[in-house]
Amino acid sequence: xxxxxxxxxxxxxxxxxxxxxxxxxxxxxxxxxxxxxxxxxxxxxxxxxxxxxxxxxxxxxxxxxxxxxxxxxxxxxxxxxxxxxxxxxxxxxxxxxxxxxxxxxxxxxxxxxxxxxxxxxxxxxxxxxxxxxxxxxxxxxxxxxxxxxxxxxxxxxxxxxxxxxxxxxxxxxxxxxxxxxxxxxxxxxxxxxxxxxxxxxxxxxxxxxxxxxxxxxxxxxxxxxxxxxxxxxxxxxxxxxxxxxxxxxxxxxxxxxxxxxxxxxxxxxxxxxxxxxxxxxxxxxxxxxxxxxxxxxxxxxxxxxxxxxxxxxxxxxxxxxxxxxxxxxxxxxxxxxxxxxxxxxxxxxxxxxxxxxxxxxxxxxxxxxxxxxxxxxxxxxxxxxxxxxxxxxxxxxxxxxxxxxxxxxxxxx
Length: 413
What we know:
Helix content: 40-55%
Distance between the termini: 23 Å
CATH architecture of the largest domain: 3-Layer(aba) Sandwich
Number of helices: 15
CATH topology of the largest domain: Rossmann fold
Order of helices and strands: EHEHHEHEEEHHEHEEHEHEHEHEHEHHH
Strand content: 15-25%
CATH class of the largest domain: Alpha Beta
Radius of gyration: 22 Å
Structural class: alpha/beta
Largest sheet: 6 strands, parallel
């Protein structure tokens, strides 16, 4: 199969699970013998633009006509079987869908967040869940300055959502939702259910797996409020006041709360802040963990670090909402704490570190869960299934016939 992947790469200064997913899927398809091209823009390149070029970037968010022309020309020249769209913000824009239509090539899109129904894609405002813009005009997002706490910065996103909502819904043959929880939210918001299929992200089988009891509890991710970092600090303080859990907390990552976290950890023997790890360091740190903790306070559409822990045979302590509920089987592959409750998180951390037999049992179950649902073989099968459905759907429309069975099934799970 010939696939063209379309993606706007996020800034390399911050860890990006989405960039990793794109790279891993490209490598997986190529290793299976498929021909894969990449059409991309890089957010890193914005810094090198002239001042007028930087000023123009917000104007390209809703629509970039140059991208439409360039991509359409490439599609006509290469004639791929399918285009796989990932992130289009800020330099690509939904103009990529018009290019696919111009060239008559079917498109699939992975929905890594909630940008189809929420301008910043988080369904969150001021630290709380928010659905004001869902199924309605995105003006509330502008009024509240939901993107980067700036009304001005939010305007291009809101305009893009309002102007291109129908283009997304009609221009994409198959949407990949990265969890059933995400799909449920999007269907409730009015997106076409028959085009929404659940395709969990896969994780390459790591060379490093846990072979002993582990030596630390690991938080691996962005240091941000929505990721539950402050909740984790409060829970860990409660555990420390009660004698601790016998192993340190390792915090790996960077983000807006980095100074606060570093100051909190300073002078403590039970906490280590190690900064941003490269992929190999991440794999080793996970394999040395008693448990990986994912205490997000917002509804995660997926949880890549949870699956990475599963692959290494390590149980997870995660917030009991969003995608975590379908990724972690409570008491079997890990533990789920009550979202937003430091005492519940602390109790789960104490339980997962205090019972080595239970911990090892959950680690084995987590590895089995990974093999059954998140391995490269499973990921490849689901990718190709989605591509074939999209190609069949476009072919049926071109013939003027009925849509095939794959597009009216309410969404494959």
